[in-house]
User: Fold dTDP-4-dehydrorhamnose reductase from Pelotomaculum schinkii.
Amino acid sequence: MKVIVTGATGMLGKQVARLYKEQGADVYLPSHKELDITNYNQVLSILKNIGPDTVVNCAAYTDVDGAEQEQEKAFLVNGLGPRFLALACRHCESTLIHISTDYIFNGEAKQPYQIYDTPCPINIYGASKLFGEAAVREIGGKFFVVRTSWLFGPEGKNFVDTIYSMAQQKDELKVVNDQQGAPTYTVDLAKALVDLNASHVYGTYHITNTGYTTWYGFAKKILKVAGFKTLVNPCATKDFPRPAARPHNSVLNPFPIEKVIGYTLPDWDNAVERHLQGTV
Assistant:
């Protein structure tokens, strides 16, 4: 089996690559210079030369606030890039796994979002990711669009590491308590992606760790597991004005992933414990 992983230097890309290597696959990890997903001729040439069974697209423009000022760049990477990958995958009869986000929703729902709920992003980042999703579906072929949220894991900048670092420097923290979502461990997500790909049940999915919390609740769990006595105070989103609006509720309902791969991901708090204690 041949697998190309784009964005392989990121948290999720590294875990996906590791799993496929452990399974004996030939894994290709092109750098941005070697494979610029916004260059269609380069994308098609690479895929023709390698002939991958699967392409996992973990490459993305992820600066939510920066996207407000760099709209064209966000849409180029998050929208046009997936379109080019989908076109090349269809040409080469490869499967495309495209990673999307909870930020395609506006956050006004009172319950977790289903895969069939209507997206309505409230920031440029979310709009660019939605554009990418639409492009992949429009082109068709063998594809998975996987929405996930609040990623954390080894070897990458994330909320867990940020809170851990801040707690070493400060006795007191203020963390937003009116945004809720599902923290998702890249180790667990990568396994689910590999298993989902093996199912060949193509389509759109929500995959996160089970349960949900606020950033405040997330921070408290991190500090508890890490053994810090740092005081954490809840605050409102309005207390920390940012260029990009954030959805207040971006919890994703995982239906029907269990029907396809046979399980749901472990509870998010269990994942935090495994991450901080160095166990998978």
The chain has nine helices and 14 strands. The domain at 2-157+182-211+250-266 is CATH 3.40.50.720 (Rossmann fold).
